[in-house]
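Journal club side-thread
Mid-discussion, someone asked how the predicted structure for our own chain would compare to the paper's figures. Pasting it here so we can look after the session.
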Amino acid sequence: MDTKKVDLAVLGGGPGGYVASIRASKLGLTTAVIEKNHLGGVCLNCGCIPTKTLYHVAVTLEEIKKAKNFGIDVSLPKLDFKKVMAIKDSIIETQRTSIAFQFKKNNVELIKGVGKVAVKGRVTVKTSSGQDIEIEAKNIIIATGSSASDVEPFEMSEDGIIDNIGILSLKEIPESLLIIGGGVVGSEFANIFSSFGSKVTIVEMLPRILSAEDEGVAELIYKIFRKKAVNVFTGSKVESFKKSGKKFLCTTSGGDKITADKILISVGRKPNSTGIGLEEAGVEVDSKGYIKVDSYLKTNVDGIYAIGDVIGGFQLAHVASEEGKVAVENIMGKAKEMSYDVIPWAVFTSPEIGSVGLNEVQAREKNIKVCTGIFPFSSSGKAYITGETEGFIKIVTNSETGEILGAQIVGPQASNLVHEVAVAMKGELLVDDIASTVHSHPTLSEAVMEAAEDCLGIATHR
C-alpha cells in the first residue's frame, strides 16, 4: 500500500472541498483532495450550473416570445433540446477543467477514488484504478455533500422516476412532468420545463410552495405558475400510482388524478455520511446522519473538520465554500467562527427571487419591533422599459434602531440586487444609509433605495 503525508486531506471535491483545498494551499499547507466522481460536486455537475444554464435558455425563449411587445417582429422560436443539453455539458466540462487547472496551479494533489477516514489523522483511498493508498494527514476536512432523498410511494429504480441528476440527463422534453415537492429545486424545474413546453404539475405536501420564502414572494410565484398553466396542488401528496405503458397514473391524497411521462422527486437532500469511516473514527452525527460541528467547523475529534451539505443547515454551494475557508483559517490557528447572519440566496424562477437575513415573520417571532419598506417594480421606470414590472423589494428593519434585518426581492435581477442589501448588512449600515445613497437613474437598483426610503415613509414613487 502506497503512503502519502500531507498537512490536509479533503474528502470531496465539491464547492466546499475544492475551495478549502485551494485556500489551504495558498496558505502554505500541503493538500490532497479525494474525489470519487467529477470535480465540482453536485453544484457543478448536476445542480447550480447545469440548472441555471437551462434557466438561461428558458428566459431567452420567453424574451423572444415577448419581442413583439417592443416592436420586434420575429417568428416563434424553435427549441433544439439536444443542442441545449450539449451546450450544458460543454459548460460543465469547461468548469471542471478550470478547477483542475487551479489545482495544478496551486499544487493541490487530486486523488480519484473513494476515501474513508480510518482513524484520526489517517485516510484510506481505493483509487479508481484499484490501487490502495494510505494518507497520513495532520488535519482532515470532510466535504462529502448530499444526495437526493427518496419519498414514498416512489422508488428511484423505477424507469421514468428521476432526481436532479436524471432530469439533467434527459434526451427529450417530456410531454408531461409531475414534480414532487414545490421547494427551490421543484419550482426552478417547473419554471424551466413549462417554458420548454412540458405540461407541468407540482404536488407539495405543505400549505404553499416555496415555504421557506416570504409568504408574499411565494404567493406571487404561485400566481405566475398558474398563468403559465402549471398545476399546483398544495397540502397534498401522491398516495398511489401505476404505470400504463410509458405514462404514470397518479392519485393524490385529495383524490386528484395526474398523468405524467416523467416524475421528478425534489423533496430534499440526505447527507453522504455513511461508509466514510465516521463511526470507526469516532466522529459524531445526529439522528439524520448529519455530522455535528461547532461554530469553528470542528467535529468532536481533534483535527477533523466538516463542511457543506454533510453538516446540514444552509445547503448552498456558496455557504459550503465559505465554510471551507473558515475551516482552513482555523486549521491555521486563527480561531474564526462561521457566521450565518448574512447569507444571501436566490431562486431562479421567472421572475427571480433574492433573499437575505430574516423575513418579517421571522423577525416578529424574535420579538423585534419591525418596520418594513416595500417598493413594487410596477413603480420602477427601468422595469417598465424592460417590461418586467411584476414583483417587489421588501426590506425588513428594526424600527427602534434602523438596523437592517433582511430583505426579500422577487422581480427582475433579484439574484443580483439582493447583494446590495447583503453588503449593507455585513457592513452594519442602517436603512438610512441605503436610503440616502444616490442611485443612478434609470436602474433597477433605484428600487432598493426606494424600499429603504419607504421604511422611513419618504419613498418618492410609492
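Post-session note: DSSP finds 14 helices and 21 strands in the chain.
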